[in-house]
Amino acid sequence: MHAPFARIRTLAAATVPGLFATLAIPIALGVTTAPVAAQTATLPPVGIETSASASYDGVVGSMTDSAGNPGSASSSVNVGPGGPGLNLFFYGPVLDASLADARAGLPGTIGSRALAGGFNPSFGPGGSTDAFATARTVTHWVASSNDPALGSVPIDVLAFFDGVLVTADFAGASFSATARAEMAVWTAGGRSVVFAGEGTLNSSGALSATGEWIGEFTLGSNASGSVRFAELDYTEFFADAFVVNVNVPFAWEVILTTQAAVPGPFELHAIADFFNTGSTDLSVDTQGVMLTQIGVVPETPVWLAMLLGLPLVLRRRFGAR
Questions:
Q1: CA gap 276, 139 in Å, rounded
Q2: pLDDT tens across 18-63, in order?
Q3: Fewer CB within 10 Å of terminal CB in the chain, N or C?
């Protein structure tokens, strides 16, 4: 179990160039407590994207998937001979293979995992052996109010990410495992990064962390030092993380990426496993303002589906007489 938040920070947003293609679309509006500005905004479409790729000694595989809201998407690639598992200290069993997994759900959590390497001693370093996985979600929101004096409001963000970076070296080589999380808000002014955290563990056990993940990892190793790990259990509440205009839609983007690479599958492993429970939540505490997610395709209630199907059932019954 994790606490609701570890501590409270105020986070300043920084504007950066957009990383993904945007689309000028009419915003699909939901039911709110106040009229929403009728406009066409340059926002990324609502939905989920996942991508995974892996290589083992030059053999490559890749997969992508996507879904709307609500929905779920997953991409999974496993390249290599497989074979019996090797039980790595702290992490657990791994196969003689490279694999990449990415998943996300709306509503739901986001996860990414990349494992590169192998332990077949018949191979020597040299063949491309790596893994890359990324998951991305985009949702649309509006902060609505009937108060004409309110022009803009601050939005709070709750972020949770947990995972582990592992490097295992039984032969001597240079390699690394990396995880990165990014959250951004899209408005009429463009894309602004609200949160960014990254960690990289290299083959010597040295950790390099940037952004909000500086000082957040716990380091360890086995007795011989051949297996090193950096564990992250991150929960943070950011008060007033960014500001949006009242009654104007905005987009919220979350990206989680893992990457691992080794010189070849020769008793080397690099693991970035953040597949579990990455999640974020938006809230507002300004009096008289309601934060609503929009652009969600509603699911047909069970009772309505049964009611809509009743005339067809009756026609079949009476037609059979």
A1: 21
A2: 333 333 323 333 333 344 444 445 899 999 999 999 999 889 999 9
A3: N
SS3 content of the chain, % helix, strand, coil (to 5): 5, 60, 35
Closest residue by Cα to residue 176 from 87, 111, 272 = 272
Taking the C-alpha atoms of residue 215 and residue 281, their distance in angstroms, rounded to an integer, is: 23
- In the chain, the amino acid numbered 219 is L
Contact call for residues 178 and 198 (beta carbons, < 8 A): yes
Question: What are the structure tokens assigned to 133, written together?
Answer: 């996985």
Spatial separation of the C-alpha atoms in residues 284 and 290, rounded to whole Å:
7
The pTM of this model reads 0.82
**Spatial contact of 44 and 22, defined as CB atoms under 8 Å apart:** yes
**What is the percent of the chain where pLDDT is above 70?**
76
Residue where the block lists tokens 């991409």: 75
Neighbours of 150 (CB within 10 A): 18
How far CA 24 is from CA of 27, 41, 193, in Å, comes to 9, 6, 20
- Nearest-10 Cα torsion for 21, 22, 28, 32: 110
Residues 6+ apart with CB under 8 A from 15: 189, 190, 191, 192, 193
| Six-digit token string for 205 | 């056990």
Tokens 């009743």: give the residue.
310
